[in-house]
Amino acid sequence: MTTTTPQASRTFIKSKKHNRPSAPSLAAPALAVLATLAMPLAYAGGGGDDAPELAADARLPQVHVSGGHDRSVQGPVRSSSDKFTAPLLDTPKSVTVVTSETISQTGAVSLTDALRTVPGITIGASEGGNPVGDNLFIRGYNAQTDTYIDGVRDSGSQSREIFAIEQVEVVKGPNSALGGRSSAGGGINIVTKTAKDTNFSNATVGLGTDKYARVTTDINRVIGENTAFRLNTMVHGNDIAGRDIVGGERWGIAPTVTFGLNGPTRAILSYYHMKSSEIPDTGIPFNNPVTTGPDVAKNGGGTPFTVDREAFYGLKNRDFRDTRTDVATVDLRHEFSPNLAIRNVTRWGKTGQDYIYTQPDDSKGNTVRYGTVWRRANTRDVDTRTLANASSLTGTWNTAGIKHSFNVGVEFSREDTDRGSFVFTPGTNNPLTGNFNCPNAGAATLYNCTTLVNPNPYDPWAYTRTKSPTQTTVETRTRAVYGFDTIEFTPQWLLNIGARWDDFSSTLNTAATNTRARVESTFDTYQAGLVYKPKANGSIYLSWATSATPPGNDGGDGLDALTVQIQNLQPQTSRSVELGTKWEVLPGGRLSVSAAVFKSDMDNARVTAPDGTTQNVGRKELKGVELGLSGRITNAWTVFGGYTYLDGIIADNGYVNTGTTANPVWTASPFNGNAFPTTPKHSASLWSTYAVNKNFTVGAGANYVDRQFANVNNNKYSPSYTRFDAMATYTLNPNVSFQLNIQNLTDKLYFDRVSSPHYAGVGPGRSASLMANLKF
After folding, report:
1. Full-model pTM
2. Are 413 and 153 in contact (CB under 8 A)?
3. CA dihedral in degrees (165, 166, 169, 175; nearest 10)?
4. How much is the pLDDT for 128?
5. Is the distance from CB of 333 to CB of 68 less than 8 angstroms?
6. Digit-coded pLDDT (tens) for 749-758
7. SS3 of 707, please?
8. Taking Cα atoms as reference points, which of 590, 678, 595 lies closest to residue 643?
9. Are 573 and 546 in contact (CB under 8 A)?
10. Nearest one of 311, 250, 323 to 281, comparing CA atoms
11. pLDDT band per the 50, 70, 90 thresholds, residue 565
12. In the prediction, which pLDDT does 123 show?
């Protein structure tokens, strides 16, 4: 989905989200509105009489890139990334861009908030090997490590803030040609705020329910003729509506300096620092189906238990999460001419987090058999240090009447992760059983077992916490070379091609257990797309792309960790075919609409082979449809929405042992043909605002998310839901305005995070916040 802001400058792009029908009727209103608004797609002209036919010798409007992220746009909208060598209207990919305006209107205060309504993206729950943080899934594939800042990979698990973000760009489909090692689903590029050539001073002060308090500042000053300084700051704190114990606080600062504002050479120096402290959420356990023993008749439906929405299974005096992030960047750009520029980016970063969070573990059937929950302590003590350098050359040239817009470059990076855990005295097992069976709860279990109904987070759990002497270090090195070219044969026909070669190595070492694993892998990835422009305001495209996910893709800080068992395997490779169309319709092209159908396959997924070893013999298949729209129906009425259909199938899940450990019998997985976990079949959203007059604007939004399975077994899932939000703004004078946001207007109980087979994350209840936006 590609979306644009229908303003005269047409500087940015806009967007929105969400998945399979348990109760499809809930989605009907939102889908009906989306279908109505997307009707311009029904007639190929799109723009009607205002959209001119392209003459044989016509030249399309071009974008002048002045350097860095400050782009002066005359014509079709472009992504901030130089790797996109054509305007997004003519880019043969599904791309969604969430602008700062959209982030502000919806009241988002984190990256996951901003992405909550982007079609095709879902949020995963944390688990043993999956750290707390931005656990994102794009088109059904884990994209936890596929986040970039200004085009450079941002490693290390973390929860990202939005106070220093200009916009967020989401690229759907295989992303390796653009970013290197990645999932088959896509990637997310964060565009940061940088110093500009005008003076301004902005601040936002917000208060709300559930102890919500937030203050941000954004100050820009021009120093002399060619230099500017910008400072963004943030202080934030809040509890989570409906979750009682859960909440926290954070603060951040992000200064940037830009040299060479008006010359051919530009240097942007920036630093980002953020710290947070919170009690992480756990959610509610699934009603775990019991398949053996006397309690088989107690099978639930696999949905989360029906308990009080505030049920919290953690411990107030044990659970915590502390994070810190520091990123320093030097971004250099020089324009040799209007048609040729070179850019070099060097980035150093350090991210870390320590946490203990209680997972309501149901793996022994305690919940069904005894009505109890084992308080499993998931812990982490991790630091990731990164150093990356990327150089690229961007330009245009004409040869034999054919125009080329190209970008070529090289990238180098180093990532070092130290990962450990915490240990407790006494331990976390039930002392009455010596394990995590919990036939009873309370003081006799040292409060390691609690009741399913009405757990007490203030139980006096006494412990001594120390860091485990067992620490794992992972060193990851990458180098890559790539090239992209948009070839314009005629104004009606364009060809986009791209290729990348990666050399990836990763080494894992756990000294305490004398465990060592190493992977060395090289791989090539490609993309190609043919674009036909029947009119200047529209395009029809057919594209193909590949991706590669080597063992240890996460650099030691996620689910795709390197192990001895997988170190010799080849990268998992995927390919995708997409047919789509994009149009700018209504007079002046003020409404953007897009549609795409796609199919992707992963042929060599890692699964258990017939001999019990891990091999590249699995297969996954995904097909889907995506619609999007954004813009103005009238000067006062804006709309912004999307719909995604995803049908993901685990075609070959390998083999399982149906015998014993001593005498294994390997048979084909019974889960072959099951749906992807964390992949709602249907998702839809609509956000709309209406300016009642020049001072008063109202807005409302609806999000529908279909059922999501939490495991490949497909016997645990979160139900579908529809959530409604509302907003109103009032401008008192040019320097003061107020904004009221009400999230989850109907106080809907819903579950917005799955992927752990043990529990589902509870979505926030109804909350309200009032912000004062100040200019001075």
Report:
1. 0.86
2. yes
3. -60
4. 63
5. yes
6. 999 988 888 8
7. coil
8. 595
9. yes
10. 311
11. confident
12. 86
Rounded CA Rg of the chain: 26
Q: Are strands 572-585 and 227-239 parallel, antiparallel or unpaired?
A: unpaired
Nearest of 310, 123, 159 to residue 236 by alpha carbon? 159
47-56, 248-257, 294-303, 432-441 — most confident range: 248-257
225 confidence band (pLDDT: 50, 70, 90): confident
SS3 of residue 156 by DSSP:
coil
Q: What's the mean pLDDT when you consider all of the chain?
A: 86
* Domain locations along the chain: 24-65+78-309+324-370+385-418+473-775
Cβ count near 292 (within 10 Å): 7
Instruction: Decide if pLDDT at 372 tops 70.
Output: yes
Task: Give, in order, the Cα–Cα distances in Å from 531 to each of 104, 493, 534, 582.
Answer: 34, 6, 10, 11
- Which residues, in sequence order, are CB contacts of 639 under 8 Å at separation 6+? 37, 591, 629, 630, 631, 632, 633, 686, 687, 688
Q: What is the DSSP string of 579-627?
A: EEEEEEESGGG-EEEEEEEEEEEEEEEEEE-TTSSEEEEEEEEEEEEEE
Three-state SS annotation for 89-133: HHCCCCEEEEEHHHHHHCCCCEHHHHHCCCCCEEEECCCCCCCCC
Cα 756 to Cα 299: distance, rounded to the nearest angstrom: 19
CB of 122 closer than 8 Å to CB of 610: no
**Two tokens at 583?**
């149009």
Cα-based torsion angle of the residue sequence 79, 85, 90, 95 in order, rounded to the nearest 10 degrees: -40
> What is the CATH code for 24-65+78-309+324-370+385-418+473-775?
2.40.170.20
Residue 332 has pLDDT above 90, yes or no: yes
Higher pLDDT among residues 641 and 432, named by residue? 432
pLDDT tens figures, 459-495: 998 888 899 988 999 999 999 999 999 999 999 999 9
Per-residue pLDDT at 664 exceeds 50 = yes
Q: Give the amino acid at 766.
A: R
Can you give the pLDDT at residue 364? 79
Q: How far apart are CA 284 and CA 724, in angstroms?
A: 22
Mean pLDDT of 3-19: 35
Number of H helices, E strands in the chain: 5, 40
What's the rounded Cα separation, in Å, for the pair 277 and 214?
15
